[in-house]
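Notebook entry, structure prediction.
Reason for the run: the old model in the group folder had no record of what sequence produced it. Starting over properly, with the input documented here first.
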Amino acid sequence: MSKRKLVRLTALLFGVSLLLGACSGNGLSSELEIIRAELEVLREELAGTKERLAEAQAENRALDDRITDLEAAGEYPIFRQTLDNGVTLIYELGQLDVGYNPLVERRASRLYVRYADGERRQVGGERGLSSISVSPDGTRLLYNDGFAGNFDAADGAEPGSLYVYDFDSRRASWLELDGLREGYTPAFADWLDDRYILFVEQLASGAFTVGGDLCVYDTENDTFRRLTHTARENFQIRSFEIFGRDYLVFNCTQYDEAYIGMDSHPILVMAELYELIRDGKTVDLRERVTDS
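New structure, fully documented this time:
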């Protein structure tokens, strides 16, 4: 039974209920019993229709999942994440880059956004996605389209591009990073909050991806600027991890003249980070190195 017919049947039941009240008031007992019997039949039919509709919807979802599984069969495993707004993110997982970072970043060969109404949209191109994260308010999706890797990128690696996909409008916006150094790329990104995006400006290619600064992108005025000035003397910011409203931990490597790396994890407290953003200041993370 179609949804339209189901609505009409529900309306009919409502009308019958009103008629029952009128008949009861007039004392028409025999007609009342007939109407009650017809009403019971209609109620049973309505319950059966709702049950069949729920089964059909569940079957459609299962078929959609099966189609997705078949598309990726023999290539990559599949990962799904359903958000509070009913949107489901479907990844065809690519390489998982660990490198020196204890925090594994998930990368995808493909990413689809599936809505509750059944529409499914592919996000990004065919070069692979990384830095995939949902904004704290759940309205937007951040991703880096095309960058080959965040740690030791091979020679010839292509630069990536940051995009923000809006779930309501179902459209993606490219973040125009005017002022990015030549030969550099956004290599690691995440939401700081619903307004600001943090990313690492890193060399796009090379056996050693030396160089890199922490940058902040302001989604309200579509501008970005650097928060550190450490992209020199073989110091590399590889990634970072945001710990709530408390602090930011970096994953860095300092290379010597023989390109032997020493790892470090400098920390910025969140109050200081927002002060850098507010006052237009920068910090040298090498002065914050406390472990190796």
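Summary: The longest strand covers residues 235-243.
The old model has been moved to the deprecated folder.
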